């Protein structure tokens, strides 16, 4: 994880909304260190104090909740190996998905300083691309963002699911197992999911969404919005033209993030 420090505004936000203060950071870090030492399935050497701080922020400094997140997070990364191994962005099957742009972080934050990420659910061809590789790309980009921007652990993530072009073949790729793992990732990742916005959604989306909701906590369910077309987004969201914005295009974002990931291929090859 990154050792970049927060600016004063972010520190104030963390204090007011996440219950963060210097004393509780010390106490929480020590208690979680003791907890990790007794968890044989977690390699304590892989977990930096910065990582622990991110889990504390994601839990609003409720230490028991942070412990559960950590255990679930590392258990999932050990169990769901198809998402967290062979993460070389030069592999053909991953390079193609990067060209397509299945997961696209916006380069500027929204008005509330949240990181917007766009998930293009139907951008790939289900006859050529595995859903597990789509998920792998998503996790690679999310890991990169988390490593390089500590502000994400303060302000959180806003996810926009562009459902344009979804067909039955896409829906069939979203098996209950994949959906369950995706929801578990939302719940245990050391970033808070602030909004889940489904746009360009046809009637069939309800079938998939019902499965998603069945695995979600009520808090996460309450953060879902569904729109048949493209809603009127705020100009300060800096969205691409495909979502009614004026800041570049999906293609531009895909090129940018492919270059970033491939420039960091050594880190992805050595980290899970």
Can you offer a commentary on this structure?
- 53% of the residues lie in helices and 9% in strands.
- It is an alpha/beta fold.
- Helix 2 crosses helix 3 (49-58) and helix 6 (92-100) crosses helix 7 (131-148).
- It is globular.
- The model has no long low-confidence stretch (mean pLDDT 92).
Write the topology of this structure.
Blueprint: H1 8-18, H2 22-37, H3 49-58, H4 63-79, H5 81-84, H6 92-100, E1 103-105, E2 115-120, H7 131-148, H8 152-155, E3 157-162, H9 168-173, H10 176-188, E4 193-199, H11 205-215, H12 218-221, E5 224-226, H13 250-263, H14 265-270
Helix pairs in contact: 2-3, 3-4, 4-10, 6-7, 6-13
Extended strand count: 5
Helix content: 40-55%
Instruction: Work out the radius of gyration.
Output: 18 Å
Q: What spatial form do the alpha-carbon principal axes imply?
A: globular
Q: Can you give the mean pLDDT? A: 92
Q: How much of the polypeptide forms β-strand, as a percent range?
A: 5-15%
Structure classification = alpha/beta
Q: Count of helices? A: 14
Q: Spans of 5+ residues with little confidence (pLDDT < 50)?
A: none
Major β-sheet annotation? 5 strands, mixed
- SSE string: HHHHHHEEHHEHHEHHEHH
Q: What is the rounded distance between the termini?
A: 12 Å
Strand order of the largest sheet: 1-2-3-4-5
């Amino acid at each position: 994880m990154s050792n970049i420090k927060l600016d004063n505004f972010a520190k104030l936000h963390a204090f007011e909304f996440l219950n963060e203060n210097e004393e509780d950071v010390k106490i929480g870090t020590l208690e979680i260190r003791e907890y990790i030492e007794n968890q044989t399935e977690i390699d304590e050497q892989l977990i930096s104090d910065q990582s622990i701080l991110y889990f504390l922020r994601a839990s609003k400094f409720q230490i028991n909740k942070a412990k559960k997140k950590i255990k679930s997070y590392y258990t999932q990364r050990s169990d769901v190996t198809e998402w967290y191994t062979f993460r070389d962005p030069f592999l053909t099957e991953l390079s193609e998905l990067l060209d397509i742009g299945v997961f696209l972080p916006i380069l500027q934050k929204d008005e509330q300083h949240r990181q917007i990420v766009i998930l293009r659910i139907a951008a790939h061809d289900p006859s050529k691309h595995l859903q597990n590789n789509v998920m792998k790309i998503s996790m690679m980009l999310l890991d990169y963002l988390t490593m390089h921007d500590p502000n994400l652990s303060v302000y959180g993530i806003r996810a926009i699911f562009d459902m344009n072009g979804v067909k039955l073949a896409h829906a069939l790729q979203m098996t209950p197992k994949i959906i369950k793992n995706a929801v578990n990732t939302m719940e245990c990742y050391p970033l808070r999911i602030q909004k889940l916005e489904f746009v360009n959604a046809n009637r069939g989306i309800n079938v998939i969404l019902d499965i998603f909701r069945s695995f979600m906590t009520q808090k996460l369910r309450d953060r879902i919005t569904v729109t048949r077309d493209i809603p009127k987004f705020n100009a300060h969201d800096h969205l691409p033209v495909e979502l009614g914005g004026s800041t570049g295009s999906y293609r531009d974002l895909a090129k940018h993030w492919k270059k970033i990931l491939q420039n960091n291929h050594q880190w992805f090859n050595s980290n899970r």
